[in-house]
Amino acid sequence: MTEIEGARPEGDRAQYGVLVVDDEEAILESIEMTLGTEYRIFTATNGEAALEILDHESIALVISDQVMPGMTGVEFLERVVEKNPKAIRMMLTGYADMSSLIRAINDGRIYRYISKPWEPDALRVDVRRALDAYALAARNVELAADLEVANERLRAENLYLRREVEGRYSFSEIIGDSAAMQKVFDITHKVAETDATVLITGETGTGKDLIARALHYTGPRKEARFVAQNCAALPETLLESELFGHRRGAFTGAHADKKGLFELANGGTIFLDEIGETDPSMQVRLLRVLQDGEVRPLGSSETVQCSVRVVAATHREIRREVDEGRFREDLYYRMRVVEIRIPPLRERREDVPALAHHFLDKVSPRMGRKLTGFTNAAMDRLIAYEWPGNVRELENEIERISALAGHDDEAIGIEMLSEHIRGPGPGSAIGLSPPSAVPERDMNRAVDELKRDMIIESMRFSGSKTRAAERLGIPRQSLQKMIKRLEITQAELAPVEK
Ligand SMILES: Nc1ncnc2c1ncn2[C@@H]1O[C@H](COP(=O)(O)OP(=O)(O)OP(=O)(O)O)[C@@H](O)[C@H]1O
Ligand SMILES: [Mg+2]
After folding, report:
1. What is the mean pLDDT of residues 142-169?
2. Could you tell me the maximum CA-CA distance found in the chain, to the nearest angstrom?
3. Is residue 394 pLDDT above 90, yes or no?
4. Residue 361 pairs with which residues in a beta bridge?
């Protein structure tokens, strides 16, 4: 572990080696007497001998005389720089050979000079300061090394995360064998390669987000950023500053310049979610950006060029919004260079089993459950249900079931489904349901549920409408009408496998 600067105990200084070089033994002795109790002192009477010591000892501070036989002090200290660049160097000087001294100081070869004779206390202070500087430098080196390691780790983590993200948003994680979804994947694949502006439409929870990310992460811009902004989440001026940035002082509270998302996404993709919720003036601004490929931050007179791929999404019937004057037609056409329409889940019920299994596989181990599948009856219900919240609702339902399931449950049965999805089970409207539940219900609904149940049961039992109508004691045509009115699906009517 590294210690905190300043917390180094005084006694630790004894670890520091101080090398003193002077041709006068008396001077060496005197310095040893001044500093010897605090530090490990090494002495030499000439440069050559001192260099030898430097080879074998760990020296933090070198104090050298300037005028010596053989190597001069400045020459010696130059060699010290080569051998041990970290050691702090100080010069002793008896008379003022100022020009060489100043040169040495300016060249950074010496930390400071001490003039002879010196005050012992002053020398102690100088040495202590020099060693503090040494400790600080050593600590900086350590910190820099730590920082390098941390950066390296961050780079590795980023790479890992990027791979993860790419994996998560690749097509392999988007489920959909239905012809309708295969068409969606096809278009997505094709336009991912291009810079075309894409408008993704579809009801809530159909996977618009997922497709937007797949467009980015499978395309050539994947190394740059994907930034998403929900246009419904912010009031207009905030949204403007978020998307286009602002200059300091552009409005109250704009304390500093801020880059907008268009600028941040340069080279990458910006995802404008809920584009249908934008105000007319925002629509004008967006149109300009799309036309000119440049943005002007709030409060700035200059524009910023940016190469950004725009993907937008809306859960609204955008064509109707245009017809009714709530969405600018010109922006609509700019936006929908390519339109990807994701069909609601009820229009591709064949995707339900794979999606349900996909979510179960994801969530069940995470919650420590053994759940691996569904009973036929439960799956029938999942397929038959309308899913107004689409895939998100299905995902939530599977999560809810997993959370509530017993630790040993292996299959999801019909009784584990939410009541509104399960629908009225056989006999549930009469007899089996606790009487206390009955008054809570709307009577017409309860009667409808009962009818629904009886129809499904007798259809499954008899396999044909004529025979089912007979069993129920009603005309075949009435049965037909009721099936339609109650929106009973073919899947619900099909005989159950036992
Ligand atoms: N085809 C799919 N395969 C796997 N998971 C899906 C699929 N479609 C949607 N999901 C999942 O369903 C959830 C909802 O999807 P998403 O957020 O993309 O919907 P959305 O269309 O953006 O909805 P909203 O309009 O409400 O923003 C997400 O958790 C997503 O991972
Ligand atoms: Mg979304």
Report:
1. 74
2. 128
3. yes
4. none
Give the right CATH number for 10-139 from 3.40.50.2300, 3.40.50.970, 2.70.98.70, 3.40.50.1000. Answer: 3.40.50.2300
Mean pLDDT across the chain, nearest whole number? 85
Cβ neighbours of residue 276 under 8 Å, at least 6 residues apart?
A: 314, 315, 316, 318, 321, 326, 327
pLDDT per position as a tens digit, 466-489? 888 888 888 788 888 888 888 888
Contact 276, 230 (CB under 8 A): no
Q: Is the CB of 460 under 6 A from ligand 1?
A: no
Q: Is the pTM of this model over 0.70?
A: no
Question: Quick check: 120 pLDDT over 50?
Answer: yes
Residue 442 pLDDT class (50, 70, 90 cuts): low
Q: Does the C-beta of 175 come closer than 6 Å to ligand 1?
A: yes
Give the CATH number of domain 171-340: 3.40.50.300
* Tens-place pLDDT, residues 447-467: 788 888 888 888 887 888 888
Structure tokens at 35: 């500093």
The residues near 9 (Cβ < 8 Å, ≥ 6 apart) are: none
Q: Are 270 and 308 in contact (CB under 8 A)?
A: yes
Amino acid sitting at position 381: R
Question: Per-domain residue ranges for the chain?
Answer: 10-139, 171-340, 347-422, 428-493
Lowest model confidence (mean pLDDT) among 8-22, 64-78, 424-438, 451-465: 424-438
**Protein residue with its CA nearest to atom 15 in ligand 1:** 207
pLDDT at residue 136, as a whole number? 86
φ/ψ (deg, to 5) at 144: -60, -40
**Contact of 50 with 19, CB cutoff 8 Å:** yes
Kindly list the protein residues that place their beta carbon closer than 5 angstroms to ligand 2, a single-atom ion: 208-209
Please tell me the predicted confidence (pLDDT) of residue 114.
Answer: 84
Ligand 1 contacts CB of residue 170 (under 6 A): no
Rounded Cα–Cα distance for residues 464 and 458 (Å): 9
Q: Are the C-beta atoms of 267 and 227 separated by less than 8 Å?
A: no
| Of the options 1.10.8.60, 3.30.565.10, 2.30.290.10, 1.10.60.10, the CATH number for the domain spanning 347-422 | 1.10.8.60
- Determine whether the shortest distance from the Cβ of 27 to ligand 1 is under 6 A: no
Task: Output the pLDDT for position 416.
Answer: 94
Pocket test for ligand 1, best of 174, 201, 204, 209 (most atoms within 8 A of CB): 209
Give 73's pLDDT tier (boundaries 50, 70, 90).
Answer: confident
CATH architecture of 428-493: Orthogonal Bundle (1.10)
Distance 364 CA to ligand 2 centre (A): 24
Q: Do domains 10-139 and 171-340 have the same CATH topology?
A: yes
Cα dist from 218 to 56, 105, 192, 229, 492, whole Å: 59, 59, 6, 20, 39
Among all bound ligands, the one having the nearest atom to the CA of 207 is 1
